[in-house]
Amino acid sequence: MIAKRTLKAVQDDRLFGHAAELGFYFLFSLFPTLFCAGSILGLAARSAHRVSDQLLNYLALVVPASALGTVLTTFNETTAAASSGKVTLGSIAAIWSASVGISAIQDTLNQVFKLDNKRPYIVARLYAIGLTFLITLLITLGLGSMLGGDFVAALADHELTHHPLAATALGIAARIIAWIIAACVLSLLFAALYYWAPDWRERHWHWITPGTTVGVAGWLLASLGFRVYIHYFNNYNVTYGSLGAVIILLMWFYISGLMLLLGAEVDTVVGAAAEKRLE
Prior knowledge:
Layout: H1 2-12, H2 15-44, H3 49-57, H4 65-80, H5 84-98, H6 100-112, H7 121-159, H8 164-196, H9 210-232, H10 236-240, H11 244-278
Helix pairs in contact: 1-11, 2-4, 2-5, 2-6, 2-11, 4-11, 6-7, 6-11, 7-8, 8-9, 9-11
């Protein structure tokens, strides 16, 4: 019953169209975000260049490799070109541009949750900028946990050379814990978007909801499925030529936006069903 109502709500709210809108805005805000992050890393931690590359390479688990190559190339270019002027002036404009994707999420989630946006433009944009910082922090934390798991595993191999079974067990345990932390961070990211992005009259924090579960699980499965599809049936370069990598990245952003909205739609349907039972 819930699945049937959700499917109808998806059609009524034009989620596929809104997901395409989000995909465009995500793509539009990606490179300003990389510019800002690259400028800061380029000045504050040039010695951490390998670490930043390794963190970004973890995205290859969900992002198609051909699209990730474009992202990494842009990131490296912006990092290499970082200067104090870019940080002090360009980063402000970059953060403002990067928040465009969050502003699009605000608008679409308001429609999904059936809310009227009564926040003034400046207030809504300040919310978007704050969420941009929060999401950047959470993504870094999630990727950092995976880096930490690999570091502990490598350290165990180095220190426990005479106890290979113990080293292997410790390495597996460290990586499992790292993946659990990354999954929790991803769930927190979805929950934060559902809590702060819409213009709720009354806010109620929920760590885990049916929509969060569906959104996170759907995003992971869809991203991995799309990655496998691109690996075996990559015809985008034949169809779009040099734009193939950009089209693949845009398609992944579309999938990400769709899963985010689907989770919100599930919460809306479940909430409406719960209210109906109480009547």
